[in-house]
């Protein structure tokens, strides 16, 4: 079949080739028919990637955003519709010829965000991309089989203007040794963006000592990041770096920086899960790794494209880029891919190679068929393990994304950790399932980023159609290793010397007797002390201690106020796809009054709480994917006051008297830990310094340990809803005679 431009035609963009993330734009695409033309019932398709959250086009409201039109210089009549096309181009506008036909040379003009009748345009995706692709496809004969038109339509998506800035610092430093910190500027969507020149004042806060560092720096016009060297702390402790933009008055506070003297293990941060345009994601692989190194400033990274899409040429490129960016002692990149078999055959598992590998072992070539060697297929997951038998240079991590990992296929030789947090959500239920099964695994967090922002992933979602599904900020893995070398990091991960944190880089360290996270050891019955050291980026709210899947103790870490109520909602609807819980509800009171409502734990602006004028109640909408959303209610209330929370999943009703007796009240609403929790709000802490003082924890829990197997781990919750989970410490408690 002849598939050149002469026969299929050509398409090009006639509007501006640059747009700003999240802002309104107009995109005009012109298609000129080739020799085939387009017959009656034939179609032109303009498709774009599913991860993009560009506004879904609409065709019948000319004054509203997203209005999209089509014109032609032929006599044919055309019809527009929005459809879901095939992976990875899940979004598409279909231009269908419903009467007549197009001849060679005749044109179709498709205008996204047509402003001629009052529309403000179409909202662009919220993340930047060097080459945002609009894919033209043709079905000239009305067969519903589309052929790609051999022309490329791309745009550049630029960051929006600076909205906020952050202070970055290393997770751990050595006393009396120089290190660097950095400032980075972000737009409202979390994209790195240039900032207007400004002087920035720097200071450090610590209970423990002082820091030698520059007092001011200039945030100049640049790519959005300024590194500041010559910093040094002189005494072990917890340090926070505070920066104030002297032009805008904005203040940024770093995550905790832990200073130790000659530690045996140092803390490094990794995000070892994400993908690019080679598979389901967006953006180039070199841009992806450069972002991880230079903007997210993480220590360890990897690429994890879905195996069913990876061609042999893709794999060669991934190997080359992995080798190019990997630098011992500076920035580590592990070669890998995502084994993406069906759930019944094992489900999603990330595969990592210690070194290079000329081959990989996909679950199938469902999309890459003809472009990858079928003899390397490994399906089900047990066959992958069979192919790996006897090797110590491969590590496998189950994770939850769209499809979920199936722990029925657990293999302790290769599976040392499980991933419980990513941009897809928080999957604490997965950790609890592993604990119920008595699997000896550690806990990891990552981004599973699809937008080119590993290590610094932000929500990319919409309350519209399919056009976006990454609903929370990404996570990171804290790794305790001797140094930043491939061997040391590999040993740390396979020994479970790691923990999961949300993007805040919460510091967490646990010890039981002389053993740390991931260790397993025999001992005798008796009283054991679990030591917990932690530092957050916000006030620490609660500490949970688990033995396997049982929470044996919850410790509220802050005093409560009696004039404000906190309502929290969380959970997912199910374990599999379409797990997101989309909440709609109302908050009402009897014999009391809600004075105001403040949101907490929200990460993008589509979710809100509004007062209902007629009743004084509040309505709310929220999205949870295992994460925690909340509301602080300033109230006039007495013991007789009743608070009623009604949602589309269920309700909770509680009196203030009951709340005082119990401390907190919660209602489980099905799904996977869907719940409403109600308690008194924490006391207000206004100053930055006081909040940081409440972000540091040193805690010891004594436990009378009985015979049997135990797995002790902790979860740490910040006031803003961010979390960290320590990998379990495994203890085999033997009778004295056995020991």
Describe the structure concisely for a colleague:
The chain is mainly beta. It has eight helices and 55 strands.
Largest beta-sheet characterization: 13 strands, mixed
Number of helices: 8
* Backbone structural class: mainly beta
Distance between the termini: 76 Å
Q: What is the approximate shape?
A: globular
Mean pLDDT equals: 94
Secondary structure: number of strands: 55
Approximate strand percentage: 35-45%
Radius of gyration: 27 Å
Which blocks of ≥5 consecutive residues have pLDDT under 50? 463-468
Query: Which range best describes the helical content: under 10%, 10-25%, 25-40%, 40-55%, 55-70% or over 70%?
Result: under 10%
Write out key terms for the chains shown.
739 residues, mainly beta, 13-stranded mixed sheet, 8 helices
How would you characterize this protein structure?
It is a single chain. The protein has 739 residues and is mainly beta. It is 9% helix and 44% strand. It is built from 8 helices and 55 strands. Strand 11 and strand 12 (147-148) form a beta hairpin. Helix 2 (285-294) runs parallel beside helix 3. The model is unreliable at 463-468 (pLDDT under 50).
């Amino acid at each position: 079949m002849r598939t050149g431009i002469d026969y299929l035609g050509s398409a090009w963009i006639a509007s501006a080739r640059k747009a700003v993330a999240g802002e309104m734009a107009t995109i005009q695409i012109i298609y000129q028919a080739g020799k085939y033309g387009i017959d009656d019932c034939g179609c032109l398709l303009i498709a774009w990637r599913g991860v993009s959250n560009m506004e879904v086009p609409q065709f019948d409201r000319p004054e509203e955003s997203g209005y999209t039109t089509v014109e032609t210089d032929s006599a044919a009549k055309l019809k527009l519709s929005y459809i879901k096309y095939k992976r990875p181009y899940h979004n598409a506008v279909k231009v269908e010829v419903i009467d007549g036909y197009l001849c060679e040379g005749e044109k179709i003009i498709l205008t996204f965000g047509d402003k001629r009748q009052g529309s403000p345009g179409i909202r662009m995706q919220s993340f930047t991309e060097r080459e945002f692709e609009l894919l033209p496809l043709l079905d000239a004969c009305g067969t519903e089989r589309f052929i790609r038109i051999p022309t490329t339509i791309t745009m550049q998506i630029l960051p929006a203007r600076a909205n906020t800035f952050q202070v970055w610092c290393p997770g751990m430093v050595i006393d009396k040794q120089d290190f660097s910190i950095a400032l980075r500027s972000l737009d409202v969507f979390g994209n790195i963006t240039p900032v207007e020149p400004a002087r920035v004042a720097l200071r450090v806060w610590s209970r423990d000592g002082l820091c030698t560092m520059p007092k001011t720096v200039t945030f100049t016009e640049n790519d959005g990041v300024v590194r500041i060297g010559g910093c040094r702390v002189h005494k072990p402790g917890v340090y926070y770096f505070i920066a104030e933009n002297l032009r805008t008055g904005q203040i940024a506070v770093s995550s905790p920086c832990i200073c130790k003297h000659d530690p045996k293990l140092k803390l490094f941060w990794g995000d070892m899960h994400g993908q690019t345009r080679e598979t389901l994601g967006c953006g180039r692989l070199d841009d992806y790794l450069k972002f991880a190194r230079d903007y997210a400033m993480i220590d360890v990274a990897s690429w994890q494209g879905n195996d069913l899409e990876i061609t042999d040429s893709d794999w060669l490129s991934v190997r080359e880029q992995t080798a190019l960016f990997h630098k011992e002692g500076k920035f580590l990149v592990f070669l890998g891919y995502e084994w993406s078999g069906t759930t019944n055959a094992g489900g999603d598992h990330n595969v990592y190679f210690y070194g290079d590998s000329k081959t990989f072992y996909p679950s199938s070539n469902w999309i890459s068929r003809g472009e990858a060697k079928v003899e390397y297929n490994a399906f089900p997951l047990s066959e992958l393990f069979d192919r790996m038998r006897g090797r110590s240079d491969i590590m496998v991590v189950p994770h939850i994304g769209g499809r979920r990992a199936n722990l029925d296929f657990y293999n302790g030789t290769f599976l040392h950790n499980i991933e419980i947090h990513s941009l897809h959500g928080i999957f604490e239920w997965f950790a609890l399932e592993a604990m119920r099964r008595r699997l000896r695994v550690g806990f990891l967090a990552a981004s599973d980023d699809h937008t080119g922002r590993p290590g610094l992933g932000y929500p990319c979602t919409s309350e519209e159609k399919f056009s976006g599904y990454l609903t929370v900020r990404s996570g990171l893995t804290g790794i305790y290793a001797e140094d930043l070398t491939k061997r040391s990091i590999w040993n740390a991960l396979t020994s479970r010397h790691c923990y999961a944190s949300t993007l805040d880089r919460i510091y967490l360290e646990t010890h039981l007797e002389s053993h740390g996270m991931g260790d397993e050891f025999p001992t005798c019955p008796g009283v054991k002390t679990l030591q917990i050291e932690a530092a957050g980026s916000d006030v620490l709210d609660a500490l949970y201690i688990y033995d396997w899947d049982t929470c044996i103790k919850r410790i509220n870490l802050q005093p409560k106020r009696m004039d404000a109520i906190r309502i929290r909602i969380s959970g997912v609807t199910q374990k599999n796809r379409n797990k997101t819980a989309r909440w709609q509800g109302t908050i009402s009171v009897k014999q009391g009054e809600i004075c105001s409502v403040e949101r907490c734990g929200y990460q993008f602006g589509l979710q809100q709480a509004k007062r209902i004028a007629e009743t004084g109640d509040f309505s709310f909408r929220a999205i949870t994917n295992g994460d925690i959303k909340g509301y602080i209610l300033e109230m006039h209330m007495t013991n007789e006051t009743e608070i009623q929370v009604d949602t589309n999943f269920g309700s909770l009703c509680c009196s203030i008297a009951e709340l005082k007796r119990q401390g907190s009240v919660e209602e489980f609403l099905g799904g996977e830990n869907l719940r409403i929790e109600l308690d008194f709000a924490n006391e207000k802490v206004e100053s930055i310094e006081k909040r940081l003082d409440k972000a540091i924890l040193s805690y010891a829990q004594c436990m009378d340990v009985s015979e049997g197997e135990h797995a002790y781990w902790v979860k740490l919750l910040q006031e803003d809803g961010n979390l960290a989970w320590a990998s379990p410490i495994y203890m085999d408690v033997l009778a004295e005679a056995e020991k």
